[in-house]
Amino acid sequence: MLIDYQKANIYQKDGILVLKEVDFHVDEGEFIYIIGRVGAGKSTLLKTLYFELDVDEAEQAIVLNHNLSEMKQKYIPRLRRQMGIIFQDFQLLGDRTVRENLRFVLKATGWKNRAEVDERIDDVLNDVDMLERGDRFPHELSGGEQQRIAIARAILNKPKVIIADEPTGNLDIETARQIIALLRKITQSGTAVVMTTHNTSLLQEFPGIVYRCINQKLEDITNDYNQISHYEEEPEQTAKKVLDYSDREDLSI
């Protein structure tokens, strides 16, 4: 199991309790939505998953085989290499081209061989159908294209889990549908996706595990959606390249 929270209390940085007795679990290849009103605790929960906030009160809080209550700060950079993080506002470097944005991440995470770096960049750009946009600057791209680059950046290091905070929040409904379909496809090779969203209309088209933040609680409401609609995988002959993450680097500590 990649993430295992049992009876965890989640606090904001100012010490305000936002979620109590949280039970939350993520396994390989799962596609997980977290929904709820603004201020209900969705983003705060995600911040604990990528170690921006601590979890000090829990029967158990495990992320990537590490107990959060015992983990040393020096381990965080290595563990983040096993994650991909996507934000609503893309967070691309505006003074660099798409390729330069991706190259910056790879070099920062230890890649040194130029040929391997360039090959990996081509791979992820192809995966998100943006290979021809590699020499563009972010301001030359549409919102949907920028989010595709953000996804390419997130999968550069072949993560075990992608954490996405409102990745479709700034996009029109059709572009949002394309982004969710792309994230859904990534799970086919074992990478889990955890995303917050307000686009609940798409949950029936792309079903997954659904949690809702409400009244300081995190509820598993999956059956409320999956009994309505079932996800149909694309036929093999129409599917685009399936992402192969079987050769992930083992960064266990």
How would you characterize the overall build of this protein?
- The chain contains 7 helices and 10 strands.
- The longest helix has 14 residues.
- Helices cover 27% and strands 22% of the residues.
- The chain has 253 residues and is α/β, with parallel strands linked by helices.
- Helix 5 packs parallel to helix 6.
- The strands form 2 sheets. Strands 6-7-8-3-9-10 form a 6-stranded mixed sheet, sandwiched between helices. The protein has a 4-stranded antiparallel sheet with strand order 2-1-4-5, with helices on one face.
Please provide the count of β strands.
10
pLDDT averaged residue by residue? 88
Gross morphology is: globular
Series of H and E elements = EEEHEEHEHHHEHEEEH
Strand content: 15-25%
Strand order of the main beta sheet, please?
6-7-8-3-9-10
Look at the helices and sheets and give the structural class: alpha/beta
Distance linking N and C termini: 16 Å
Integer-rounded radius of gyration:
18 Å
Tally of contiguous helical segments: 7
Helix content: 25-40%
| Low-confidence segments | 228-243, 248-253
Note the main sheet. Answer: 6 strands, mixed
